[in-house]
Amino acid sequence: MKALIAAGGHGTRLRPLTYTINKHLVPLANKPMIYYALEKVAETKIKEVAININQGDKEIKQIVGSGKKWGLNITYLEQAGGALGVAHVVKNALDWIGKDDLLFYLGDNIVLAPLQKLIDKFKKKQLDCLLGLTKVSDPERFGVPVFDKQGRLLKIEEKPQKPKSDYAVTGIYIYSNAVREAVQKIQPGPRGELEISDVHTYLIETNKKVGYEELTGWWKDTGKPDVLLEGNSLILANIELDIKGKVKKGAIIEGKVIIEKGTQIAKNCLIRGPVVIGKNCKLENTTIEPYTSIGDNCDIQGAEISHSIICDEAKINCNKRIVDSLIGPAAQVSSQKATKPSGHKLILGNNTLVEL
Q: What CATH number was assigned to the domain covering residues 239-338?
């Protein structure tokens, strides 16, 4: 079995952050999102992995590398013709897949459940397709399975206005070689894309053996800012105390906190975990509250920050409380009192959100 990780697309729902950074490299607990997919694959017996990337994308390859870090051999596949749907990612990779079984993993998904259990069920039942399912409060955002009264899969509906179940098909799929025919037979849907739900429905309607497994623990599709923050929180909830930086006497550290080398925490700071603070940061007169991750080389003074993601090299100098926020690489947040004339100075691009 090989693994294919989808890491293309444009991350439109995470703009403006994704204007300058691939969404699969957005940090969760200070690690690029795609690392979590690679770690999950590395827990299985799979060694051969391909990552689907946008045409001309060099950033993911530069940051992820050869895969040696995870004991994997990684191949990079540019998605010819651009983003034409999730099923097109598989179609684009058919030559690389060959005759092998395939674990297909959408790279913006994070999951707690081990994947080997799904693979073992796929092999034991001699399935052509195994779908990971989970209950959600908003199934209309996902592919939704439709069952008969005996619990057998009838079809998968893509983002239905009136879902027929409260289950979502997660971004984790396992296929036999039967997927080759499916991705070549289906036609673009109403959105002009090759829908992965149509692949699954095709396999069902052509009498292939399609099964499912409900995932244990949490699963998140981190395509929206609020869910991205929730995913960050879920990962932070499992960290352990690890302080390598310098914490001045008088600073208060509570709960599970990671502070990396080179970071300095001044005596007038309060940090309540779970919190991750990267390398070579400087914090003064600052309160960091739970479920916050702060990247490398950040300078934070006089702020209160809660339930937020602060990316590398951000500078925050204001006596304000910042909550539920995504602050991108090298972004600056400063006090209106720092310059003249007084007032709120805003330099905003497309899809920016500001609360004053």
A: 2.160.10.10
